[in-house]
Amino acid sequence: MTAAFSVSDYLRDHIRTVPDWPAPGVQFRDITPLLQNPRVFRVLIDAFVHRYMAPELRPDVVAGLDARGFILGSVVAYELNVGFVPIRKKGKLPFKTVEETYELEYGSATVELHTDAVARGQRVLLIDDLIATGGTMMAGRKLLEKLGASVTEGAAIVDLPELGGSQRLRDSGLKLFTLVDFAGH
């Protein structure tokens, strides 16, 4: 008898942990091995695409957070045959923008979105590679809502629940979908 295939375990097996990067004590979860192997990359993308093909979850547009959310979001948008919009770090977009500043562990950061990136009432899937403190995803959601869009779900490959971001996002009313949970690892 064959064991059931677990997408979560399969993906976890291809995420590299880099100890003490970028600072001592940090266990960095590196997703680049997921992207390097075409079979693993397809399993990753298919997991998102199959979920968001369901009519009740299907977005009108996918928004990706700078920078690894661009990789995932653009491919997922292509496969769903919907548009893709980038949410960039401040100063990277050439047209008129709206911006949102959020707090980091030490300091703050600002992300921007073109004012014509989404239309009022559009259903948006917001995607990134990882949820840590939740600040970037929260800022992205606020930007999209400033323009009148509805963020139907936040999605990421990895959740680091011990950092509190996923709980903070859920407490704000955002539904989340993640593929790999690194709680207690």
UniProtKB/TrEMBL annotation:
Gene Ontology process terms (BP): adenine salvage; AMP salvage; purine ribonucleoside salvage
A Pfam family it matches: Pribosyltran
Alphabetic keyword roster: Cytoplasm, Glycosyltransferase, Purine salvage, Transferase
Domain named Phosphoribosyltransferase: residues: 34-160
Gene name for this UniProt entry: apt
Superkingdom as given in the UniProt entry: Bacteria
An example Gene Ontology CC term for this record: cytoplasm
Organism for this UniProt entry: Ottowia testudinis
Lineage, uppermost ranks: Bacteria, Pseudomonadati, Pseudomonadota, Betaproteobacteria, Burkholderiales
Location (main, coarse): cytoplasm
Reaction(s) the record says it catalyses: AMP + diphosphate = 5-phospho-alpha-D-ribose 1-diphosphate + adenine
Localization (cell): Cytoplasm
General function of this protein: Catalyzes a salvage reaction resulting in the formation of AMP, that is energically less costly than de novo synthesis.
Family per record: Belongs to the purine/pyrimidine phosphoribosyltransferase family.
Pathway(s) it belongs to: Purine metabolism; AMP biosynthesis via salvage pathway; AMP from adenine: step 1/1
Protein name: Adenine phosphoribosyltransferase
Bilayer-crossing regions: none
HAMAP family (UniProt xref): Aden_phosphoribosyltr (MF_00004)
Subunit organization: Homodimer.
